[in-house]
Structure formats: structure tokens, C-alpha cells
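Colleagues,

For the teaching module next term, I've prepared a clean inverse folding example: a structure given as C-alpha cells, and then the sequence designed for it. I'd like students to try predicting residues themselves before seeing the answer, so please don't circulate the second half yet.
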């Protein structure tokens, strides 16, 4: 039986550039608090929710697909630990940033933009000087000619990207219309920062425990469960009438995130051909960036017409995406059973070997 490495051994095996990426990710996500508070800032200056959403969507254009680097930077067999550390860095930054930003925003919004610019510069310098140079660019250019059609023909990837895009539109409402909803309901930026810190804190404390359960489930089932929890959490925002019930909605969709994200990243890595693993991760990460672009525009438009329509749309999108994943699981199970039945029938039809006398 092969030796099962401990968590500490996996962490020690991660290369130095991966730790640079984790540290830079924490700094960058800590500074991205301006993203959500930009809605408070623009609406306080008299801009409409739709205009604020359009400005917020520009952030999605430059979003970095850092997760695509994990597969290249971490050695084979250590990638689950690499993804876990990456998400820990992301959520540690998300947990710490909004709480600090809420207090800064009450004094001056200028400090939010200064902080965001500073952390971006630090991350950029770290990436430039510490991350390894790409010495395989000619090979990648050659692959690009056929890789798009090959990825588009992978039904499992396409289904996952469609479901993830629907989810990305929903979860990015946490940075677009959720702060707007709180502001219109009379809550201060400090309340919003506290709720978002609750999200990050739960992930830091509980995600590893949650994965001990979800890894025992079929990947597509776990992904569907995560989608449903996200739909319930965001859909219930329209019904929440107090800070306590709003916190409960955050807890629900946070558990949805903890179920969906690690399993989703592992599923994308599992279905990818080895030489396209980075491309698959990049395509998956791009759906979140695309969702970040679409969520503020679509979300603020729906919210401007009637707030409850937005939250019901979030619920419907997640439910539809979960149905897509369940349908894929049923289909794959049917194919597996057909193959197993064919193999059994072929084995039974084989003539018995003659017996020597």
C-alpha cells in the first residue's frame, strides 16, 4: 500500500513560487475591499444603481485567473493541497479586508482606493520578480490552434462552465447588489463588512471539515448540492428583514460555496487531459471573471426594476444549474452501467478454456 502523506508533508512539498502566489493572493484579496464599497461610494455621490453596476463590471475585465497557475506550480499528487491553500489565502484576505474597509469607508472613501492600489502594486511586483518565467510559450501557441475546438467538444467541461457561469452571476451579487440592498435598507457599511467577514471566517474555520464529507460524494452530486445551497441563500435575501436573518442567508450561501468550490476545482482537474489541465482551469476561472462583469450590470438592472426579482432570479439560476449537474450525473451513471453490462456480457460469451487431460 502506498504511503499516505500527511498534510504537513504536502505543505512542505509545495514549491516556493506557489507560496509566493498564496501570499500575493492574500494581499490582493485583502485590498479588493474597494470592489464592494464602490457601490456605496458611487450611490452616495448620486449615481444610479445601473451606473454603479457598470463601473463595477470593469473590475471583471482584468481579473486574474490565478487558480490556473496552481496546476503548473504544484507537483502532481499535491494539487488538492495547493488548491486548498489557494482558497485559504483568498478567503483570509476576503475575511480581513471588508472589516477594515468598513471603518475606512466611514472616514473617507479615498483610503479604500489608496489601499486597493497599494496591494495591487505589491502583488504585481511579487508576481514579476518571484514567479517563474514561462519557457513553454512556443508549445502553447501550437496547441492554441486546436485547443478551443477540443475543449468545446468536451460535454462535461461545457456543462460545468455553463453551471459555473450561472453561479458566478449569483455569487458576485455579494459585491454588487447586496451592499446596495443593505444601504437601501438602512444598514451601514460596517454591517456589510461584518457580514462579508462572516463569510470568510466560516470558510477558514470549516471548509476543510466540509471537504471530508463532500469528497465521499459523487462530484456532480456535491456540485449540485452546493448550487442549491447558494440559490437558497441568495434567494432568501429578499425575505430577510433583520441583521440576524441576513447573517443566516450568508451562512447558507457560504456553506454552498464551501461545498461547490473545492469539488468544482478538483472535478475540472480530473476531467482535463494532462496537457490541457491549465487551459481547463483557466476556462473555469474565466467564467467567474465573466460573471463578475455581468453580475453588476444585470443585477443592478433587475434590482432597479424590482428588488425581489433579482433574488428570485438568483434562486432560479442556481436551481437550473443544479438540475444540469444532476442530469449529467444520471447520464454518466447510465453510460457506466451500459459499459459494465456490455463487458459482463462479452465475458460470459467467451468460450471456456479447454481442459488438458
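(Answer key — instructors only)
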Amino acid at each position: 500500500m502506498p504511503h499516505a502523506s500527511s498534510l504537513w508533508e504536502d505543505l512542505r512539498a509545495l514549491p516556493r513560487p506557489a507560496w509566493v502566489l498564496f501570499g500575493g493572493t492574500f494581499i490582493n484579496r485583502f485590498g479588493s475591499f474597494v470592489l464592494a464599497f464602490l457601490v456605496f461610494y458611487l450611490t452616495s455621490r448620486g449615481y444610479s444603481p445601473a451606473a454603479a453596476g457598470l463601473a463595477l463590471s470593469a473590475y471583471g475585465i482584468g481579473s486574474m485567473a490565478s487558480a490556473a497557475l496552481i496546476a503548473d506550480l504544484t507537483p502532481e499528487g499535491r494539487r488538492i493541497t495547493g488548491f486548498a491553500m489557494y482558497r485559504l489565502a483568498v478567503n483570509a484576505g476576503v475575511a480581513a479586508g471588508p472589516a477594515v474597509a468598513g471603518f475606512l469607508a466611514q472616514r473617507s472613501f479615498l483610503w479604500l482606493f489608496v489601499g486597493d492600489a497599494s496591494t495591487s502594486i505589491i502583488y504585481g511586483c511579487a508576481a514579476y520578480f518571484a514567479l517563474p518565467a514561462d519557457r513553454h510559450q512556443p508549445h502553447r501557441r501550437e496547441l492554441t490552434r486546436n485547443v478551443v475546438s477540443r475543449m468545446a467538444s468536451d460535454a462535461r467541461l461545457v456543462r460545468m462552465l455553463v453551471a459555473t457561469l450561472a453561479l458566478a452571476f449569483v455569487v458576485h451579487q455579494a459585491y454588487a447588489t447586496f451592499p446596495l440592498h443593505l444601504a437601501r435598507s438602512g444598514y451601514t457599511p460596517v454591517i456589510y463588512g461584518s457580514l462579508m467577514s462572516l463569510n470568510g471566517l466560516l470558510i477558514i474555520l470549516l471548509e476543510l471539515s466540509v471537504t471530508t464529507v463532500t469528497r465521499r460524494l459523487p462530484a456532480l452530486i456535491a456540485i449540485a448540492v452546493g448550487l442549491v445551497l447558494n440559490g437558497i441563500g441568495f434567494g432568501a435575501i429578499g425575505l430577510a428583514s433583520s441583521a440576524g436573518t441576513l447573517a443566516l442567508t450568508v451562512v447558507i450561501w457560504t456553506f454552498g460555496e464551501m461545498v461547490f468550490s473545492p469539488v468544482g476545482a478538483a472535478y475540472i482537474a480530473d476531467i482535463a487531459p494532462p496537457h490541457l489541465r491549465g487551459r481547463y482551469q483557466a476556462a473555469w476561472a474565466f467564467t467567474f471573471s465573466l460573471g463578475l462583469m455581468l453580475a453588476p450590470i444585470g443585477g443592478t438592472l433587475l434590482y432597479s426594476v424590482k428588488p425581489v426579482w433579482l433574488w428570485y432570479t438568483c434562486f432560479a439560476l442556481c436551481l437550473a444549474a443544479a438540475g444540469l449537474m444532476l442530469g449529467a450525473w444520471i447520464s454518466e451513471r447510465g453510460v457506466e452501467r451500459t459499459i459494465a453490462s456490455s463487458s459482463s456480457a462479452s465475458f460470459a460469451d467467451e468460450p471456456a478454456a479447454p481442459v488438458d487431460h
